[in-house]
Amino acid sequence: METVVFALLNGVIYGLLLFMLSSGLTLIFSMMGVLNFAHASFYMLGAYFAYTLMEGSNFWIALFIAPVLVGLAGMVVERYGLRKVHARGHVAELLFTFGLAYLIDEVVKIFWGRTAVNYKVPELLDFPLFTLYGAQYPAYRIFILLVAILMLVALWYLLRRTRAGLIIQAALTHPHMVGHLGHNVPMIFMMVFGAGCALAGLAGVIGGNYFITDPAMAVQMGPIVFVVVVVGGLGSLEGAFIAAMLIGLLQTSAVSINASLADIFGFLGLAGTSEVGGITIASMAPMLPFLLLVLVLMVRPTGLMGDREV
Amino acid sequence: MTDMTTTYVNLAPSRAEKFRQRVLPMILFALALAVIPLFGPSRTTLTLMNHMGINIVFALSFNMLLGRAGMLSFGHAVYLGLGGYFCVHVMNWIAAGSGIWGAVPVFSMPAFGFAAGALAGAVIGWPSCRRAGTPFAMISLGVAELVAAAGFMFDSLFGGEMGISADRMGGHEFLGLTLGPLEDVYWYIAFWTFVGVVGMYAFTRTPLGKLSEATRDNPERVEFVGYNPQRVRYLVFIFAGAFAGLAGGMSAVQDEIFTPENLSLVPSGAILIAAYVGGIRYFTGPIMGAIVMTYMGSNLSDYTAGWLLYLGLMFVGVVMFVPDGIAGVVYGTWDIISGGKFREVAGSWAIRLLGLALMAVSTITLVEVAFRWSDGYGEVFEPFGLALHHGSLLTWIVVVVPFALGALLLRQAARAENEVTT
Q1: Where are the transmembrane segments (chain B) (predicted)?
Q2: Same structural domain for residues B294 and B363?
Q3: What ipTM did this prediction achieve?
Q4: Which of A94, A111, A301 is the closest to B137 by Cβ?
């Protein structure tokens, strides 16, 4: 019971973080039709910006300023990079963002070094909030939960209930028509790209000190975010939410299961001493998202909630 | 209806043209491979050459997918790795000399790699080739992560983090090559590089090779003509995996070790960059890319800590401004020179070259100064005896002024060209 509750809580938090990252990616995809390979790099930038801002000021300022800075960086990338490559098709765009991820990795190494930086949880939130089954639960995790839910609601409200959201939604599906109505579509694209990157940056700010802030964090997170977006169905925010929760829960609960394959398939005669039998579910956790990706794409190419073929 | 008969112009190349365009380059390539050892290259050069050979075959096999069939794969190293792993195991069986394996020469490793790569391509390609475009790219990414993770799990097959090593000197000699000294390995690599290049060129001339290009350009029409684009992709994928496995077999003998790292996204990304920078629209593009990238990877890293950054800048630059890569530039230049138009463009080229050079000066200064500042050892970047501190005004002048000038020149050249064409 104890394990289940903790796995659920942590899984939901991890899932919400994943959603924060993948919501931006999904928005950008539905707009430009291209998967932004560098998306996780903006997540990393968010964490590092927050770390630097925290040295000069405090966490609360960093929480607001860092995502804005990341968003501005994203807008510059869209305006002077992606827009130029756009005419040459999706493969060129994908490759451009692939190269960009490379570059951001290296630039981060120049500015902040090759090892992890000491990006800490703010003191105000560094206390155990409640005790569950004799184990203390850190307040910061609940803070992540709150920020993520707040963001979720704000995003939903912005897209579904405001005029700006209406124009964005229209521009995603009918950019030419929106252009004819007098809206500056390239400008909208740039803003959405910036907003998507800012969301990734926000995830970095609150996730960087929850996990670890080092130059490898983009490479670790990037493929998983892709999996979330593709499994959820490209272009579908609801799908991305479901997939993010699914993968978050799947991975965190797998980590806490100590059973080996021999324990499960023992009735088939699999011995615990054999190589395959000795593999534990916990050690398979990093593989699970990719297994899910391959399975989903084989069985249901549109993803869970997607309405179009990828 | 008229009774006019249409006469078709014979577009087929003449025998002389066929020889000049198809056979002659191969003969020259073989000659180049044969001549290199006459210069008495050092051990380091030989190792570099061997790696170039491996990467040439690998990049060409990657381009069978991206350039020819339009399939972007983020996990092509999986096939090189699986082929190579199989070869390392075979080499160990040969060394043990039991049964039939005692009779197999190590020289034949790439053939085993070819078979293993084809098998891996056939198994993995079955689910992944059902989709094209972005989903294919994503599946290839997922598969690569899966295989690399599995590589760390099954120690008896992949040897864990240590990998599995082998001895290339076991078994029978073939053609008098013991494969002990690097010179022998060079001949081995040269032979198989040539086989790989000729094989992949021949593949582009087959109906399947032609169909793969048609599938890239317009799958619907391919379907109308009566072919199944999925099957075309699947078959091409198997061949690409097979040739990657061939490169894996070459690599198994050259390096005598394979680790799960060889299966990961890192080498897959590197070969993607090499092929693209070389130019994916030309058959020779990936060859040029592989040569340049292997050279940069082994030599540039001695000069500067920022070589990965330069690599990334180069890749992004190619994607943005020179989509046809090195091969495109080389052939474009050749066309203009042989077409006698050199005089017309000489001025604009000079301006562009100057602009590029200025921007390169600025970028290199910025990167080098930044890396020294970041290391924190207090080392100073001193090109031509000029001490450039990260704080000094001179540094920033050297960074900003050439950059602005170069950008201005390039802009002007681009504008002038637009005026000519419109």
Answers
A1: 23-40, 46-65, 77-94, 100-124, 136-154, 185-203, 234-253, 307-332, 353-373, 393-410
A2: no
A3: 0.84
A4: A94
